[in-house]
Design brief:
about 400 residues, alpha+beta, Rossmann fold, 6-stranded mixed β-sheet
Length: about 400
């Protein structure tokens, strides 16, 4: 009879038991972890806790330190300072093969001369598991590939190879499963399908997943909690909805989706709503959505929260309005149309309008004003760079 796919404790390749891991995996704690390379801090005094059984994402641009953090958890890099604990046990000095973790890479790393079943069972056989073939078949059923057990990796699609790699990692019952840009080699449609599959598998097995990615959609689609990294530090940590709706820095506002950020000065500091002068226009911001409540601020609003108003069109209740401005670009993208609107004194603002009527409602060159419900505005520290986190044409953030 096959053993349960998710059993009690993890054992390494030599048969030694690692920290106990229940069906919900184990928690992961990083305490003031720093990693220096030649005097440059790739990871800078980073502390975080990943609860057992959660799907956690480290999100950030290339060079932000997320992959280095993952490699330290895996034991492939040693921290310059700080501690790493898994299931309450300090593993900072523990070798990679002795840690209760497995890693799924973008490259799959399957053995070409072995069948799919043999690939999944490989680690179990090395550990002399009582029923490697049975547990491997369970893992293939989990990723919905039992019918491909006798094929070689070269006979599989990219998505199938990735699912085999995931099955091979999960079958070893790690306390923590690390995913290093696992969907990066897949095309857009397959990547989105795999996002759903990964979340389903994590929910079903209940292991602790730590997913490293630069793809905002991936992080927001799958993770319970997202940590946005920048220059070796965590800019903000929270649920996808919290980070998107309530960014605390310009970097997070720009990197996680898109934001219109306008410089302004607080002129009315109320208990519930701030009055902010933005280019001579009074804009209201809820106090609970303001990082800074005095002096210079950056007033922000997401493009999809803005509404286009034609001349003479009534303003919805409880809205901020700027403009008029001129439509300088119209881009139809299927579910929505994206507009660029140049507002004198404020610059160009982005607007996303859902295509409920089947096409663009405003034409290039039209004069419009922009309205946004007060409850959707936010305010950040005015000392920050408006362009922080904006990805340039080379794919790098400003």
């Amino acid at each position: 009879m096959a053993q349960p796919l998710v059993a009690g404790a993890h054992a390494d390749a030599a048969g030694r038991a690692g920290p106990a891991a229940s069906g919900s995996g184990a928690d992961l704690v990083l305490e003031r972890v720093t990693k220096d390379f030649g005097g440059v801090a790739a990871v800078d005094d980073l502390s975080l806790t990943v609860p057992a059984g959660s799907f956690f994402a480290l999100l950030g641009p290339s060079g932000c330190g997320k992959t280095t953090t993952l490699r330290m958890v895996a034991g492939l890099e040693r921290p310059t300072a700080g501690r790493i604990l898994i299931g309450g046990e300090d593993v900072t000095a523990t070798r990679a093969h002795q840690r209760p973790v497995n890693t799924v890479f973008q490259s799959y790393a399957l053995f070409p001369h072995l069948t799919v079943l043999e690939n999944v069972a490989f680690g179990l056989r090395r550990r002399r598991d009582a029923d490697p073939a049975g547990r491997a078949r369970q893992a293939l059923e989990l990723v919905e590939l039992p019918h491909l057990a006798d094929r070689r990796p070269s006979q599989l699609s990219g998505g199938q190879q990735q699912r085999v790699a995931l099955a091979r990692a999960v079958v070893n019952n790690p306390a923590v499963l690390l995913l290093d840009e696992p969907l990066g080699a897949l095309d857009l449609k397959l990547r989105r399908q795999m996002q759903v599959e990964l979340k389903r598998i994590q929910t079903e097995v209940g292991l602790t997943f730590v997913h490293v990615t630069h793809d905002q959609e991936e992080a927001m689609t799958m993770a319970d909690t997202v940590a946005v990294m920048n220059a070796g530090r965590i800019e903000q940590l929270g649920s996808p909805a919290e980070l998107y709706e309530m960014p605390r820095t310009a970097f997070v506002a720009n990197f996680l989706g898109q934001s219109n950020l306008l410089r302004g000065t607080v002129v009315e500091a109320g208990d519930v709503v701030l009055g902010v002068d933005v280019g001579g226009v009074r804009v209201r911001v809820p106090v609970e959505r303001a990082v800074s409540t005095s002096g210079e601020v950056l007033v922000g609003v997401r493009p999809e929260k803005l509404h286009l108003l034609r001349p003479g069109e009534p303003v919805p209740d409880d809205c901020n309005v700027v403009g008029p401005g001129r439509v300088t670009d119209v881009s139809f993208s299927g579910v929505s149309t994206q507009y660029q609107v140049l507002v004198p004194g404020l610059g160009t603002l982005g607007v996303f309008v859902q295509n409920l009527l089947g096409g663009a409602a405003v034409a290039l060159g039209d004069e419009v004003s922009l309205a946004c419900a007060v409850r959707h505005t936010f305010a950040l520290d005015g000392a920050q760079d408006v362009a922080s986190g904006v990805v340039d044409l080379d794919g790098e953030p400003a």
